[in-house]
Amino acid sequence: MSVRFNQSGRNGFTLIELLVVIAIIAILAAILFPVFAQAREKARAITCVSNFQQASLAIDMYVQDYDEHMVPVEYGCCSYNPDKGDRMWPQLVYPYVKNRQIDKCPSDGFNTDATDLADMGYNNASNAIEKDYAYAITADFGYNYYYLSPLNGLSTADSIGNTTAFDGVSLASIVRPANNLMLVDSVWNVVNGQPQGGGNWLIETPSYWYGTGQYWFGGWTPDNLNSSMVYGETWPRHFDGMNVAFVDGHVKYQKLGQLIAGVNPRTYVVSDPSAYEWGGPGQ
Predict the structure, then answer these.
(1) Which helix (H) or strand (E) holds 1?
(2) Which of 279, 133, 266, 273 is nearest to 203 (CA)?
C-alpha cells in the first residue's frame, strides 16, 4: 500500500502578500520612528534640566559664600587670555559642582571637547589652564550678565584679591528672583540658520533698558538668521524652545517668544516691565 502526500498545501506567501506585509512594516516605521526620536529628545531635554539645576545650585552656593552677590560673568576682562588670569563664571562655581560635563547639553551635537578647544584656537597640546578656559567659555547655558553681572569698565578687587571689570549684583537688589532670568540654553555661532561650535557662557538681552552696565553689546538681531545674535546667543534646541533657570533656582521650559515678552527686540522698547524677564524695575 502506497502513501500519498497532499501536494495542494501552500508552503509560502505570494508576492502580493509579501508586498502588503512590507507596506505595513513601512507604515509602522514611519509612525514609530518619529515617536522614538521625540522620546530620545525628551530624555536629553530632561538631562539638560538636571544640568541647569546643578549649575543654579552651584551659583546659589557661590552667592552665599560671597556676601550674597551674584557670580561675575568672568574675572579679568576682555583679553580672553586664561594665562593672564581670565576666568569664566563656570570656572568660578566649579568647586561647588565638580562636574564639568554639566556644561554640555546632550541635545547639542556640536559641543564636544575638540570643538570647544577649536573655538578658542586650542588643541589637545594646549596647557590645562587653556583647556579648562575653553570648556567653560563654550558652556551650553548662557548667563544673563547685563543685569546680573554688568561690566563697569573699572578693574576692582574682591575680598580675596581677584580683579574683574564685572560686578555681580547683590541678591537683595533682585526683587523678583522667581521672574528674573539667570541661565538660558545658548549657542556659540550660527551658520546658515544652524547652530555651530557648542554653547556660549553668556547671552545678550533683548533691551538695554534699566541696565546699569557701561557696555551693552547690541542685543538681538532677529532679522539676521546667520548671526549668533539672532536670538541674543540663546538657542531653542529643545522642541523649538529652551530650558531656562531663574535667580531663585527653579528651572523650566520656555518657548522663544517668552524670552521677548514685554519687549520689542528690534526697537529695544520694554512696553511691559512686569512681563520682561531679564531685569529692570521690579527686578
Answers:
(1) none
(2) 279
| Gap between the Cα atoms of 17 and 150, Å rounded | 70
Tell me the C-alpha distance between 38 and 80, whole Å: 38
Find the distance separating the first CA and the last CA of the chain, reported in whole Å.
102
Q: Residue 65 burial by CB count (10 A; 0-12/13-18/19+): exposed, middle or buried?
A: exposed
Query: For residues 139 and 135, what is the distance between their CA atoms, to the nearest angstrom?
Result: 7
User: Which phi and psi angles does 243 have, rounded to 5°?
Assistant: -90, 140
Asked whether the beta carbons of 158 and 219 are under 8 A apart, the reply is no
CA distance 141 to 200: 7
Give the pTM: 0.84
Q: Which amino acid is at 86?
A: D
Output phi, psi for 122, to 5 deg: -105, 175
Q: How far apart are CA 66 and CA 149, in angstroms?
A: 14
What is 253-268 written as a DSSP string? EEEHHHHTTTB-TTT-
Q: Which three cell numbers stand for residue 274?
A: 512686569
The span from the CA of 195 to the CA of 231, in Å, is 12
The single-letter code of the amino acid at 112 is T
Q: Which residue has the cell 546659589?
A: 60
Contacts of 168 (CB under 8 A, 6+ apart): 63, 66, 69, 70, 71, 72, 148, 149
pLDDT tens digits, one per residue of 151-206: 876 555 544 445 567 889 999 999 899 999 999 999 999 998 899 999 999 999 99
Q: Round to whole Å and give the CA distance between 255 and 91.
A: 29
Whole-angstrom Cα distance, residue 168 to residue 62?
11
State how far the Cα of 98 lies from the Cα of 112, in Å rounded to an integer.
18
Which of 79-88, 183-192, 268-277 shows the lowest mean pLDDT across its residues?
A: 79-88
